[in-house]
Design brief:
Elements (H helix, E strand, L loop, with lengths): L13 E5 L11 H9 L2 E4 L2 H10 L7 E4 L5 H13 L3 E5 L12 H9 L4 E4 L4 H8 L7 E3 L7 H9 L7 E6 L4 H12 L4 E6 L7 E6 H8 L7 E5 L13 H9 L4 H12 L3 H13 L2
Parallel strand pairs: 1-4, 1-5, 2-3, 2-4, 6-7
Antiparallel strand pairs: 7-10, 8-9, 8-10
């Protein structure tokens, strides 16, 4: 096994990932400003927004600007790799925040690593770390889960994996799905688990609402607008009782999962013994 290494100061072509402001233009770093002005190629999730950003910063993009959003990402990569190989600097930016974090970028980075081409990053704004800092929850250890599943059944199954997760969990959610997501969280995780809903971070109407899941679910019914980031408190350590998890296993079986696989999934998420859980399900069936 060999270690992979990239050097930020490598000469010649390279890929530069750059974080862009989430809302407040003042969050643009000087390094981002310099990179937008000098990069040979700017690969942008939305070319119009990137040009508008440059205009707001009072600078001119001198390089070639190409679109780089989800549906064209794979098709764009070969030409961008050729640019880097030819000695050009390719700057990759998304609409807001850090590329690769629920935004395009990962595949381009992986392709550069595969070709042994230099990759570096200009750090900056991120909704993930901003929400964690504002949550007023213990976040020394956390996990990031992107967007929850859209359908309630799949979303509840995802929430079950967080029942005993000791780390804080941060995730994004669409405003029109927030109320349903929080309602499902109350049912699966209980009404007293604490969380914070952060909306429009760094923007004029920034708002952070903190409370229990029950309180936040009631608040969200009125509707929330804008970009939403949720921070969920980590679970307190508990002793998993197999008998109390039978219904959870049965729900997965009813959705089409094999009993052994359902027991394995619930046991992995709760810390219960897989064998004891399997026996508990069989015992519950026999008693009906």
């Amino acid at each position: 096994m060999t270690a992979e290494e990239t050097t930020a100061g490598s000469a010649g072509g390279r890929l530069v990932l750059a974080a862009t402001p989430m809302g407040d233009i003042g969050d643009a770093s000087q390094r981002l400003r310099d990179a937008l002005s000098t990069a040979d190629v700017v690969a942008a999730e939305d070319t119009r927004r990137t040009r508008a950003l440059a205009k707001a910063l009072g600078l001119e993009i001198s390089g070639r600007v190409v679109s780089f959003y989800d549906h064209v990402e794979t098709a764009r990569i070969p030409a961008l790799l050729d640019d880097i190989t030819a000695g050009r600097t390719v700057l990759l930016v998304t609409d807001a925040g850090m590329p690769s974090v629920s935004d395009p970028g990962y595949r381009m980075v992986a392709a550069c690593v595969e070709r042994d081409l230099p990759v570096t990053c200009l750090p900056g704004p991120s909704a993930v770390t901003t929400a964690l800092a504002l949550s007023a929850l213990p976040v020394e250890r956390f996990c990031f889960d992107g967007f929850p599943p859209r359908k309630s059944g799949a979303r509840r199954q995802w929430l079950r994996t967080l029942r005993t997760e000791p780390r804080a969990c941060v995730f994004f959610e669409a405003p029109h799905r927030l109320a349903d997501c929080l309602a499902d969280a109350v049912e699966v995780l209980g009404p007293d688990r604490r969380a914070a809903v952060c909306r429009e971070l760094t923007k004029t109407y920034e708002q952070v609402v903190r409370g229990t899941l029950a309180e936040l679910a009631a608040w969200a019914v009125e509707g929330a607008r804008g970009e939403i980031t949720v921070v969920l408190e980590g679970a307190a350590p508990t002793e998993a009782d197999p008998a109390s998890l039978v219904d959870e296993v049965q729900a997965l079986v009813d959705d089409g999962m094999r009993l052994k696989d359902a027991c394995a999934q619930v046991a992995g998420a709760t810390g219960a013994s897989r064998r004891e859980l399997y026996d508990a399900v069989l015992a519950a069936r026999a008693s009906r």
